[in-house]
Amino acid sequence: MNAIQIPTAATSRDVIVSIGRLNKSFGAFHVLKDVDLDVGRGEVVVIIGASGSGKSTLIRCVNGLEMYQSGRLTVDGFNMPTEADRAIGGEKELARIRKGVGMVFQQFNLFPHMSAIDNVAIAPIRVRGRKPDEARASALRLLDRVGLHDHAHKLPAQLSGGQQQRVAIARSLAMEPHIMLFDEPTSALDPEMVGEVLDVMRELAREGMTMMIVTHEMGFAREVADRVVYIDHGRILEIGTPTEIFDRPTHERTKTFLSRVLRH
Amino acid sequence: MTTVALRWVHRNLFAKPFDTALSLVVIPMLAWAVYAFAHWALIEAHWQVVGGSFKVLMTGIYPAGQLWRAWFSVATLCAMFGAGLGLSLRPGRAALTAVASVAILIAAALAAAIDVHSGMLTAACAALGIAAWIGTQRSAVDQRIVLSGLLAGVVAVFVVLSPPGFEVWGGLLLSVVLTIAVSILTLPFGILLALGRQSRITSLRVISTAYIETMRSVPLILVVYWIWIIVPLLAPDTSVPGLLRGMAGFALFFAAYVAEYVRSGLQAVPKGQIEAAKSLAMSSWTLNVDIVLPQALRVVVPSLVGQILDIFNGATLVFIIGLTDFLRAGQMILADPQNSGRTYEIYVFLFAVYLAIGGAITYASRRLEAHLARGSR
């Protein structure tokens, strides 16, 4: 049985993230097993799977929040250092990679002591060395783009969950990333706020942003994904277009998973 | 009115048989104690001794002709304390301001009874402090400006006080200035130690941990004395004044405690904050200075303010290196055979002043705690 379908869509395009035989363990727990995945520039890849299957860990490897032990991971042309490399340095490559990779977290992780606009402007000022006035002006434009122009001077605690997550997206965009990672961006939201965040992400996809998204929103995945990746127990079982994965899954496990999440 | 009072008494003092019994024992004892103290304080005590030695109690052997320097310091410190309260706390109730004003009036009256000149100046300084408190309550100033203003004030106090020489600093002035200087010095040192203890670099981590644990396992008096005797060994040709050596000892000792407070604050910062900062490619410097420390320090500000009280009370130990702090100044006055019968007057006065200053610091710490808790929702 052919466990991994080699994607053809990405190889023909400019590849921005290239993962080959990647292995990652937390101590004795083998989380990611020989993962192969290429993401093309401008592509939207949605990663689905049961909780604990390693899908969050996979995208957290892409910006170095998790360390991997063996395999190959190149992002934007830079080699991601392995755990062994990072024990003796590798900070420079890491910083270079992270400048081009934005990340949006399940728990928003906005800086609670800064207003929305400062949350967005701080990284361009401190990391890119932009002038504070210019950075705040572009921060305001970004906040406007996610529909939060009027909330720019509020603290995160004064914003709703959906608004906080939109600020978090603007904060990542402020670094002008080449790829955006989304780690269950709507899982911590009240149901009525999920839509406003998905709208922003939809807009980003339309503008051609490369995105790797871990989500349980299957309707959204079907709509925006170029490809859907199904991970099961740390292995990629299936990669395909939304139609292939959702309508004609080949694996028994994929079918079981989809029948469970699509029932309601 | 009387019914309200009676109901309060019934509910709080005589609600149950045990309460009643306790109240019947405690209330007469308290009443007797208060009566005895009031009788002594108002009729038997000879408070002239406090008035006569006021200058020594407050400034030690600071030259009488240079006392304007001390007054300048008092005024500056009062204004800074007031402004600090006004800027860091939310506007208090009007009643509180009224109570403070009345307290000043009483203090001024008492001081004037002892010595008109210094009484008026005391009242003026206190009024300046309260004016600064009220005046700054509703203004929003950038924290950086506030902090540099406070720092500039402290430096000004030092510069103005120092010309007559550090050896002549004494009394309450010495205790207060030492407390302020040490509180400020411990902060950067303590933060660095706390960060060092969490560092990924093993040597830094080991040195920081060893330092903190060593300092925390020895008594303050030992560290102060040790620094005092070791500095001349390290720098034989220069004479570092005892006061500076004392401050260094205090700062080195209390920095270890600051480091532990800061560490608890660092641990309170959620992991997601660090991940977010890293995902934005922040360097570890930016991550600490802009993201982690502001959140960590916010948590520990009440503890740090509380530690100022520890430093102030610990300052009584500087007598061991020959300095004359407030308590020591009181004892020196009692050493004069003329004043030998006035032990109680002097010690009650010392007690009252320590209580007033300690109370003010505790109050500020409590209010800050409540204020910061509200800010973080």
- Contiguous uncertain segments of 5+ residues of chain B: none
- Kindly report the greatest chain-chain contact and the residue count on each side: A-B, 25 and 20 residues
Question: Which percent band covers the strand fraction of chain B?
Answer: under 5%
Our count of helices of chain A gives 10
- Kindly state the percentage of residues in helix of chain A: 25-40%
Low-confidence stretches of chain A: 1-12
List how many beta strands of chain A DSSP finds. 10
C-alpha termini separation of chain B: 39 Å
User: How would you spell out the order of helices and strands of chain A?
Assistant: EEEHEEHHEHHHEHEHEEHH
Walk me through this protein's architecture.
The complex is a heterodimer of chains A (264) and B (377). Chain A has helices at residues 55-62, 83-87, 91-99, 116-126, 132-145, 161-173, 191-206, 218-224, 242-247, 252-262, and strands spanning 15-26, 29-40, 44-48, 70-75, 78-79, 101-104, 179-183, 210-214, 227-232, 235-240. Chain A has 264 residues and is an alpha/beta fold. In chain A, strands 6-7-8-3-9-10 form a 6-stranded mixed β-sheet, with helices on both faces. In chain A, strands 2-1-4-5 form a 4-stranded antiparallel β-sheet, covered by helices on one side. In chain A, helix 4 (116-126) packs parallel to helix 6, helix 5 (132-145) packs across helix 6 and helix 6 packs parallel to helix 7 (191-206). In chain A, 49% of the residues are buried. The mean pLDDT of chain B is 86. Chain B contains 16 helices and 1 strand. Chain B is mainly α. Chain B has helices at residues 2-13, 17-44, 48-52, 54-59, 67-88, 94-114, 116-136, 143-161, 171-198, 202-216, 220-234, 242-268, 271-279, 284-314, 326-335, 343-375, and one strand at residues 324-325. Helix content of chain B is 80%, strand content 1%. Chain B is globular. Classes of the chains: A alpha/beta (264), B mainly alpha (377). The A-B interface holds A 63-65, 95, 98-99, 101-103, 105, 107, 109-113, 122-123, 126-127, 157, 168, 171-172, 175 and B 270, 272-273, 275-283, 286, 290-291, 294-295, 298, 376-377.
